Amino acid sequence: MNVTEYGAVFTPASTMPLRFDADKCIGCNRCVDACQIDVLLPVPEGGKTPIVFWPGECWYCGACVMECPVKGAVTLRHPLMNQAAFIDRSLLKEEKTL
Ligand code: SF4
Ligand code: SF4
């Protein structure tokens, strides 16, 4: 990727909110257009998976995934913190007997 074509600098983040499947993606860039905060940029050559240029700015709204015409071409990767299964401690046996 030649970032100078956009006159912007890639901003790394601790998360990568989207996963593209290059074998399925047809490079239509509908996901790029769907993102209201411009997390994504189209690859200048076209026909390839878009660039997640500002991964730290993603709101995980899912608009890009819903707009994609090819199932599985792009999927959301939620942060680990949001993947955790929270436990209702009041349901634990030990807590009930106290
Ligand atoms: S999930 Fe929402 S905010 Fe994140 S890249 Fe897709 S459309 Fe943009
Ligand atoms: S909308 Fe889907 S097929 Fe089109 S560029 Fe985005 S991921 Fe690829």
Low-confidence sequence ranges:
none
Return the CATH architecture: 2-Layer Sandwich
At the first level of CATH, the class is Alpha Beta
Give the strand order of the largest sheet, numbering strands 1, 2, ... along the chain.
1-4
- What's the number of domains? 1
- Shape label: elongated
Element-by-element helix/strand order:
EHEEHEHH
Helix content: 10-25%
Total strands: the figure is: 4
Give the ligands present: iron/sulfur cluster
Characterize the largest beta sheet: strand count, sense, and whether it forms a barrel: 2 strands, antiparallel
Topology (elements, then pairings):
Elements: E1 18-20, H1 30-34, E2 40-41, E3 51-52, H2 63-67, E4 74-76, H3 80-83, H4 93-97
Antiparallel strand pairs: 1-4, 2-3
Bound molecules: iron/sulfur cluster (SF4) (2 copies).
The site of one iron/sulfur cluster (SF4) has 15 residues, from helix 1.
